[in-house]
Amino acid sequence: MSGGHELTEQVYAAKTDSEAADALIRQYMGFIRAEAAKFLHRAPVEGQDEEFSIVLLAFYEAILGYEKHRGAFLAYASRGIRSRLIDHYRREKKHAKVVSLHEPIQDGEEDALKIDHLEDPTNEIETSHHRSAAKEEITEFEQCLEGFGISFSDVADNCPRQERTLRACQKVLTSARRHPEYLDELVQTKKLPITALSNLSGVDKKTLERHRKYLIAVLLAFTNGYEIIRGHLYHLSETL
Asked: What pTM was estimated for this model as a whole?
């Protein structure tokens, strides 16, 4: 497979060139099949497994939606694929609960019907995949934080405890997301651009310095598209 920089260039070319997109999809068909296999627990069969079509579409959507500041493309695509498949299983679960009241019941089938169509309080497939997705994302995010010398316990200890401070941090995060050049600077230098973010948000530099690790963690979550972790981090201080 191509190196990271070359792949990024291919993805950007594929955004506006359908032939380039088709070529990229063919080139990474092994990756696409592997992503479908994770959910099927077997090799997907093209034309037979709906999951394969969903993964294929999600990969193309990832091409269209990808931006450099979101991290490595394949990791970004994998998260999008996972999200699409979970949505698919959630819809399947919803439809599976519906039983037609007009469907005739043959003798001896009544008890089986009751058992087969009782609403299952947990969807084992969805729960399993969601747990697996969360585990993968947590591991990846932990490695990302390590590159900044930060641990999960550091983030928890560094969260704003007061409502006023939380609102100030949210202002900083909003300002940073509106200026992706500072997100790029964070990733490249491994340092929070405190002065620039303070000027943008109007939040005192001391507040940024005091909650530097928390702000870095949340910004990295937004930068790299860690959907599961992002929500937990953003509201972590409210539950402490």
From this structure: 0.47
Chain-centre distance for alpha carbon 201:
27
Residue type present at position 129: H
Locate 213 and state its tokens: 């690790």
Tokens of 80: 């999008």
> Which residues does 176 contact at the CB level (< 8 Å), separation at least 6?
182, 183, 186, 197, 200, 219
For 174-195, letters b (16+ CB in 10 Å) and e give ebbeeeeebbebbbeeeebbbe
Tens digits of per-residue pLDDT, 102-111?
344 444 444 4
Q: What is the pLDDT of residues 192-208, one digit of tens each?
A: 999 999 999 999 999 99
DSSP state of 70: G
Provide the pLDDT for residue 42: 86
Task: Transcribe the chain into DSSP letters.
Answer: ---HHHHHHHHHHHTT-HHHHHHHHHHTHHHHHHHHHHHHTS---TTT-HHHHHHHHHHHHHHHH--GGG--HHHHHHHHHHHHHHHHHHHHHHHHT---TTS---TT-HHHHHHHTSPPSS-HHHHHHHHHHHHHHHHHHHHHHHTTT--HHHHHHHS--SHHHHHHHHHHHHHHHH-HHHHHHHHHHSS--HHHHHHHH---HHHHHHTHHHHHHHHHHHHHT-HHHHHHHHTHHHH-
Instruction: Kindly state the tokens that stand for 215.
Output: 């702000």
